[in-house]
Amino acid sequence: QVQLVESGGGLVQPGGSLRLSCAGSGIILRGYTMGWYRQAPGKQRELVASITTSGGTNYSDSVKGRFTISRDNAKNTVYLQMNSLEPEDTAMYYCNRPRVAYAAWGQGTQVTVSS
Question: Strand runs (DSSP E) across 2-82, as ranges?
Answer without folding.
Answer: 3-7, 10-12, 18-25, 34-39, 46-51, 57-59, 67-72, 77-82
